[in-house]
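Review this:
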Amino acid sequence: MIPRRSLQKWDAPYLLQSKARQIVDQFIAKKITNSRARSLLRDLYKIDKNNPMVEEHLNTLEYLDNWSDIERLWKEGNISEAITKAKKSHNLEVREHMAEVLITMVKEGLENESLGIEVINIMVQDAYELCPHNPVIQEYYRISTRFPRR
């Protein structure tokens, strides 16, 4: 018979990671909701706040939840509400994604001349408020400040 070894302190992170993976798998299989999965992951996070996998899974589920709300608002035509929700999000990926969407729209609007200067200024300002440290957005912002304002 193989002797059972005692639980070592370095086993705990791996057990948490395994449990986190199980939670995500249940969510993917639609056995639990996003909010239930986040709640369970938050409980794991309380046990070990330095576990990168638990934190990564939690951030991903928060991103999915936030982005689905924003996407719904956008599709319903509530663009400014969607942008405001992204600005209020604590999830950096949500803010970055919305900023990328806005900058992509600005690029396309400039290429096909479908957006007016005022709309471009607003979209660039919103993108900058979402991600002020992004160098690409900083450059668009710098250029847009040269456009005439009303």
Observations:
- The chain has a mean pLDDT of 89.
- The chain is about 75% helix and 0% strand.
- The longest helix spans residues 52-75.
- The two ends are 83 Å apart (CA to CA).
